[in-house]
Amino acid sequence: MTHSQPASSSSPALDLTADCSRCAALCCVAYPFEEDEDFAILKEADHPCPNLSQSCFDCTIHADLNSRGFGGCIAYSCAGAGQRVTQVLFAGETWRDDPDLLPHMTHALRVLRPIHEALLILREASNLDLPQDIRQALNGLMTTLAVVDGTTIWDFEEAEVQEALASVPDFVPRLAPYVRKDPAI
To answer: Cα separation of 170 and 71, whole Å?
Structure first.
């Protein structure tokens, strides 16, 4: 069996690292909190967290999240979807500038975040020594999910993109034989 080398520049280059300074605190608004071990309060979706600063997009308890019962915030990552929504899909506009944007921006985050998370997994998998057929499938998924020229939420809701996203859970187990086991474990 011939294996190919790790993916090259043919894979789309996207920033899949969260950059809160380029986002509009969408994670602090979009998702509901259940009062449990991860969140000290109950919060509805599409409502700003009460710990969000009223004047900017900073968390007023960020330094004390764990001790204040917000471990879920510490564990969360948008994988770069937040800044992509804010900077690309909404051209830097925010829900504070225009409150009518709030449901649109939070919906966009809920659509893009799973796509970005899948891309993170696939990007990591691109470092594996894979047979050509699996490498081609992986690159195809990455290209479809990246939507590098996407400028509206509709670009990410296209059937082709959503079908690619839905296929990732079935594709990932195909990679298992190519993951090297750490002998120290």
So the answer is: 30
